[in-house]
C-alpha cells in the first residue's frame, strides 16, 4: 500500500473492513505510527485511533527512581531499546488504562517518591515479584523500608513503630511483612518470588526459616512461592510435607551461594517448577519491584525516621 494518504484512503474504501478488525490491528502498531499516519487517512480512522488510544491497556517498561544529577530531589529514568530517558516524577494519578509495569527499581527515596508510589499503588497487586537489595548495615534504609515502603507494597501490612530499632529488629520487622505478602497467592497460579540479593545475618536467616516452617506446618490452605537467598554460610537442607494442604516446603543449594526455598504441591509438574526456579534466579519475571537504596540514598522525608539525608549532608 502506498504511503500517500489519498492513495491509502482509496484502497481502504475498496476493502470495506469493519471497525473491530481495524481496532484489533491497531494493537500491533506503535502509538506514533497510529497518530501520525493512520489517523490522517480519514475522519473515520481519526475517530478509530482516538477510540483505540482511549481504551488501550498500557504497561510501563523498565523504570528506575534515582536522585537528580544536579540538586536535591528524585527523577525517573526509563530504559528501552538500548536507550535511557530522564523523566520528572509524575504528580498526577496514572490513567485508568495503565495496568502494569515490567520493572521498577527504587534506588532513591524521598517524600516525592513515596507520594508517587502511593499514586500507583493499585499496580502493586498480588502478582508482583520483589527483589530486596539493601545492605544489612544500612540501618536508616531498613527503617524506611519497614515504615514507608512495605505498607504500600504489601497488602494488610502495618507500618513498624516510628523510631530507632536495632538492626535485627529492623530486618525482622521487614521479614514479617514480606512473609505476609509471600503467603497471599498470585492470581495467575504462578509462585510468588522474593529475592534477598544482599547477605543477611545468620541469626536473622535462621529465624526467618523457622517462621516459614511454622507457618507451613500450621497452614490449612495452599500457596506457592520461591524465595531466592544469597548466603555466605551453609544451611542444612530440609524437605517438609503438610498432609492437610498436600504441599512440600524445601530448601536446596542452587549454586554460587544461592539457596532456594520453595513451597508448592507435593504432586507437581517438575519441569514447570524447575523452569520457575531458573527464572527466579535469573530474574526473568514481570512486574518486578527492586528496592535498592542505602542510607546515603534517602532524601527529605516527612517521617523523623529518615535520619540524615542528602539535603543535610
Observed structural traits:
alpha/beta, 2 domains, eleven-stranded mixed β-sheet, 23% strand, F-box domain-containing protein
Please describe what this structure looks like:
- It comes from Globodera pallida.
- This is F-box domain-containing protein.
- The protein has 313 residues and is an alpha/beta fold.
- Helices cover 35% and strands 23% of the residues.
- A hairpin with a 6-residue loop joins strand 1 and strand 2.
- Helix 6 (139-153) runs parallel beside helix 7 (167-182) and helix 7 (167-182) runs parallel beside helix 8 (202-218).
- The longest helix is centred in the last third of the chain and has 17 residues, at 202-218.
- The model is unreliable at 156-166 and 303-309 (pLDDT under 50).
Strand content: 15-25%
Report on the biggest sheet.
Answer: 11 strands, mixed
Overall tally of structural domains: 2
Poorly predicted runs of 5 or more residues? 156-166, 303-309
Radius of gyration: 24 Å
The helix/strand class is alpha/beta
Please list the strands of the largest sheet in the order they lie side by side: 3-2-1-4-11-5-6-7-10-9-8
How far apart the termini lie comes to 62 Å
Count of DSSP H/I helices: 9
